[in-house]
Amino acid sequence: HIRAFSALAAMVLSRVEVPIPPTALDAAGVTEEQWRHELSLRGWIQETPAGVRLHEVARHGITAGGDALAPADVWLPVALELAGSAAPTLRLEGIRLLVEANALDPAERILDESLPALLAEGYAPQLWKLLDRVPPERFGGVRLRCAAELGNPTVLRQLSQPLEGSTSDRLTWAETLYMRGDLSGALDVIAALLADSSAEAQACRIDA
């Protein structure tokens, strides 16, 4: 028989796909001292320099092969904790979990803030894969900037102009049109942006 704290930790870890610091589970209401020893004795966790993760055999047993996943309210606090991490891998994992929990508003906010750093670290392919799980009407600006970073012609052809996009998104859309070979469309977007009298557009022109 497994203790309640250890069972809770295992349920949370069953939803996580990368090693995480054991202290991240504090957000779920369990401290490392309450679960780590028992799960280690059972051989359920794998130790890595980056943290711990659940062994695949244990994950399969806990989730009944994916048919009995832990409810989102159990691991959502851990998702938020990971999404606030300074480590790109952990932050991306937290965002993935937020998307899995359908917590799209915080996921979009955090991803929008984190996007320049994540793209600079080379996470564009993983981000694009994650965006497949998001309804097409959401994350328009993020989707656009990620696709422009990838520069893949197939990906670029899938894009449409985000409605009410920010100045940054509009510039990215112009870049996207240019990469798709639509020079006239790109120039039209730039011309509209130059004519925009909003403070954001003016600041963007100064930065450029």
Beta-strand segment tally: 2
Q: pLDDT average, as an integer?
A: 82
- Indicate the proportion of strand residues: under 5%
Going across the biggest sheet, name each strand in turn. 1-2
Radius of gyration: 21 Å
Cα separation of the termini: 63 Å
Structure annotation, total helices = 12
Q: Main sheet, how many strands, which sense, barrel? A: 2 strands, antiparallel
Encode the helix/strand succession as letters.
HHEEHHHHHHHHHH
pLDDT < 50 stretches = 199-206
Helix proportion range: 55-70%
Quick tags:
mainly alpha
Provide an overview of this structure.
- 62% of the residues lie in helices and 4% in strands.
- It has a two-stranded antiparallel ribbon.
- The chain is mainly alpha-helical and 208 residues long.
- The C terminus is likely disordered.
- Helix 1 crosses helix 2 and helix 5 packs antiparallel against helix 6.
- The radius of gyration is 21 Å and the shape is elongated.
- It has twelve helices and two strands, in the order H-H-E-E-H-H-H-H-H-H-H-H-H-H.
Layout of helices and strands, plus pairs?
Elements: H1 4-13, H2 32-41, E1 45-48, E2 51-54, H3 56-62, H4 72-83, H5 88-100, H6 104-120, H7 124-131, H8 140-150, H9 153-157, H10 167-179, H11 183-195, H12 199-207
Antiparallel strand pairs: 1-2
Quick summary:
The protein is mainly alpha-helical and 208 residues long. Helix content is 62%, strand content 4%. The C terminus is likely disordered.
